[in-house]
Amino acid sequence: MGHDSMKAEGERYERLMRLPPFLRGGFRPFFLGGALWALLVVALWVGVLAGAVELPTRFDPLAWHRHEMLFGYLGSVIAGFLLTAIPNWTGRLPIAGGRLAALAGLWLAARVAVLFSALSGAALAALLDIGFLATLAFVAAREVLAAKNRNVPVVIAVGLLAAAAALDHAEALGLAVPPGLGWRLGFALVLMLVTLIGGRIIPSFTRNWLAKQGREQGLPGQPNRFDIAVLAATAASLVAWASMPDAAATGALLLAAGALQTVRLARWSGHRTLREPLVLILHVSYAWLPLGLLLLGASAFVWCIPASSALHALSAGAMASMTLAVMTRATLGHTGRALRAGPGTQAIYALVTAGAALRFAAPMLPFDYVHAIGAAGALWGAAFLLFVIVYGPMLLGPRPDGRP
For 20-42, what is the mean pLDDT? Predict the structure, then answer.
């Protein structure tokens, strides 16, 4: 490293060390804020179902719950992931300090405005909500394009997520948009991010762990043409579902994508990672994706398969489990801790998986539906509460090694 490079690195180090720890990396405010928001959204939704809560929002209660999990919670996790990954992708300085605080403040203002939009106005809620995602897309695009990095598709997905949020707000305002198009498009985009990013990190982390154990035969390979075919098939099926959810052709495309995703997951040797929870949870989380796609496709042909179960396999299962898996691993790594899943982390994984399984099965169980949803919400919410308890101090405090 040359003298100028060493000097620049030293100045960067000093600037980051002068900041409060909470504002030294995007994962800190957005992972913690997202987990707290998910916990609140689930609690309010269960209260609405029980008839104990009336929400002061312009959205109907189900639409608000769906919007806030998609564009609120997942928007926050995507922001934390992107702002943390981009410096590694590009070698550029991280978004930190005042700029990070402003972006996190915009996200929080959007959440409050959407929740209280019956009082503060739907236009303000839409402006703040869409503005956060659009600003995130702009910031990410500027960094990625300046470094001529290959992750432009991820940035495009965030920009499209802002457009999906706009459509969802337009429907809530009573404008002439196809019913449900906004949230289905947002749902599809998040699933594509799970497919794209999961396809990179799961085989890589699995391969690295198995190699460290000396088990170097049959390691997962690098992404190849088959993975590209799976991405294309999944994208085609989700575009069809977002635009024509009830068409038989859509069901067939979803079944094909689910079958291909099943083969893809099987190639990653997840059964060999049973002794490493940090890696195993990635495989378990991804397994919800082919299951959900297969069930969603089958629901177009088989009346007794509820589409709601398929959607919750994809949301409460794939999306929530994968985000918690990434949030725990990234927090440990970026705060200088050992990549080891302690009892608290293992409990988080068990609770979110159990909650997702119960929510997925709720319409098919011989129990009161509302009670089953309440129990699922309690398990699922407990996972996020435990994340706040275990990982909150890491996200708020300095690294134990004294680094920024």
Answer: 96
